[in-house]
Amino acid sequence: GVHPLDRLIHYTERKGRYTPITSIDLFRSRAAEPGDHAGTDDPVFDGEPRTPDFTATVTVYRIVKGQRCAWTASTRWAEYYPGDGVEGFMWRKMPFLMLGKTAEALCLRKAFPRQLHGMYIREEMDQADAPTLTAPPPAPALPAPPPAPPQIDEPPVPALPPPEPPPLIAL
């Protein structure tokens, strides 16, 4: 079992209740328990750090029926960064480490769902306590279209008479 003194699990107060939050080390040890964890690649980063487009992608390998299979997961700064308050201090200080841990945890959960279902690391949950950004105000309504020009009553154009057939020429 896991004991809080092992520092693999932490209790965090959320909405008046204490919630267990795990560490990335617990995720790694749980994935290794069945004996089929076949490695984890370092995170691959894309985009400018600390911007909404900054992403981390991790690949985890697991032996399935004798084959080494890959699972990949990506996380985005815009979805996990908890904001500019106290919660975001470590994110601003070490953006690669923090986003990389969220991608690794997500990927390990995908590769080892039975061992890790319902478990989250603190870095994944930091954004849960951050103030919610409100949606921007709606755009102002478009102005009404100008009124249609007034109708002018014109006399109808007379129809042309049908053309006359060409004369027959006798040979």
What key attributes describe this structure?
171 residues, alpha+beta, four-stranded antiparallel sheet, 6 helices, 6 strands, 25% helix, elongated
Please explain how this structure is put together.
The protein is α+β, with helices and mostly antiparallel strands. 25% of the residues lie in helices and 23% in strands. The protein contains 6 helices and 6 strands. The strands form 2 sheets. Strands 3, 4, 5 and 6 form a 4-stranded antiparallel sheet that branches. A hairpin with a 2-residue loop joins strand 5 and strand 6. It is elongated, with a radius of gyration of 33 Å.
Portion in helices:
25-40%
Largest sheet properties: 4 strands, antiparallel
* Strand runs, count: 6
Helix and strand composition category? alpha+beta
Mean pLDDT across residues: 85
How widely separated are the two ends? 116 Å
Low-confidence stretches: none
Cα-based radius of gyration, to the nearest Å? 33 Å
Shape: elongated
Task: Tell me the series of helices and strands, N- to C-terminal.
Answer: EEHEEEEHHHHH
Strand percent estimate: 15-25%
Count of alpha/pi helices:
6
Question: How is the secondary structure organized here?
Answer:
Blueprint (H helix, E strand, L loop, with lengths): L8 E6 L2 E6 L1 H9 L4 E4 L3 E3 L8 E10 L2 E10 H4 L8 H5 L1 H17 L1 H4 L5 H4 L46
Antiparallel strand pairs: 1-2, 3-5, 4-5, 5-6
Helix pairs in contact: 1-4
